[in-house]
């Protein structure tokens, strides 16, 4: 018996036509390598949320006619470009043990930082010198490092990342990567046309995605469960309503022009005046719900596909 099915990859659907049910996933990967230029060893095929093993047959996975299998992976030239940039960044700046042994005792604002603040953080910031706006790029990475919610997550999970670096904007298909479970995390900061920088919230979501790779390597259900939790945590650990902070986790970056959150400190009553006060717990819950609405399935898939880890 034979069956027809499709493979979807980054918005493109490949129709494979009729295949015998005895064909293996390894056979499918051979075909896809020719069509997509993604090496077989770099491919991951997902069906019903599970990563398919090479020795599984189409019959054993229970595939149905006209089914769509998801392909994850990057063409070899993109992988080579990331590795090249990685080597360049490594040559420019190395994380030294001396930094951890002799941390700065005070922040730029002059306030004391605890040993925990210094230990569980990003120990080095690196930007690309060949592009304009280096100061803005560095300021953006420092804002991520000093983000109250990110700080809380780093301290809670006891994560220490050697370097937070800017990724080349020419790698359009790659949003970020995590090397060696936290040795270096690189993020794409600039827009495709190089006219500006990507939105802060979007970059922070990619950072949370890459931090999840400190624990889980594959983009499976365990990975997504933790990633969704981090997107909740980053809000509950850093939400300010009407100037009242729900949970303080040490010093944080205060930009000159902070983006509006769109959330007010109370609930407005139609036809009335003033606001109805709400509790801190209710504010936190609203913030969590807002965060989860913003982290959509489409965003998860885009970050999975744009991940170079």
UniProtKB/TrEMBL annotation:
SUPFAM superfamilies: Ubiquitin-like. It holds the Pfam family WLM. It comes from the Eukaryota. Residues 253-272 are annotated as: Disordered. Residues 113-296 form the WLM domain. Residues 1-72 form the Ubiquitin-like domain. One of its GO terms (molecular function) is proteasome binding. This is WLM-domain-containing protein. It comes from Hesseltinella vesiculosa.
């Amino acid at each position: 018996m034979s069956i027809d099915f499709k493979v979807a990859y980054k918005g493109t659907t490949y129709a494979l036509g009729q295949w015998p049910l005895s064909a293996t996933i390894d056979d499918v990967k051979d075909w896809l390598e020719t069509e997509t230029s993604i090496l077989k060893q770099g491919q991951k095929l997902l069906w019903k949320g599970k990563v398919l093993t090479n020795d599984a047959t189409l019959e054993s996975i229970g595939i149905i006619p006209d089914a769509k299998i998801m392909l994850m992976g990057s063409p070899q030239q993109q992988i080579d470009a990331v590795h090249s940039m990685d080597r360049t960044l490594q040559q420019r700046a190395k994380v030294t043990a001396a930094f951890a042994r002799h941390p700065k005792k005070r922040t730029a604002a002059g306030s004391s930082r605890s040993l925990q603040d210094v230990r569980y953080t990003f120990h080095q910031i690196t930007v690309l010198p060949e592009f304009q706006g280096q100061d803005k790029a560095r300021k953006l990475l420092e804002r991520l490092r000093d983000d109250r919610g990110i700080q809380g997550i780093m301290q809670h999970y006891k994560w220490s990342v050697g370097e937070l670096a800017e990724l080349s904007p020419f790698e359009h298909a790659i949003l970020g990567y995590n090397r060696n479970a936290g040795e270096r995390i690189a993020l794409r900061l600039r827009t495709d046309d190089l006219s500006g920088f990507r939105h802060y919230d979007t970059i922070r979501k990619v950072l949370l995605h890459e931090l999840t790779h400190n624990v889980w390597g594959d983009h499976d259900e365990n990975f997504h469960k933790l990633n969704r939790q981090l997107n909740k945590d980053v809000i509950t650990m850093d939400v300010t309503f009407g100037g009242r902070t729900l949970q303080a986790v040490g010093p944080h970056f205060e930009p000159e022009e902070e983006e509006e959150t769109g959330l007010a400190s109370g609930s407005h009553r139609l036809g009335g005046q003033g606001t109805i006060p709400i509790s801190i717990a209710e504010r936190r819950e609203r913030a969590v719900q807002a965060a989860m609405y913003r982290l959509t399935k489409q965003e998860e898939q885009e970050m999975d596909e744009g991940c170079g880890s």
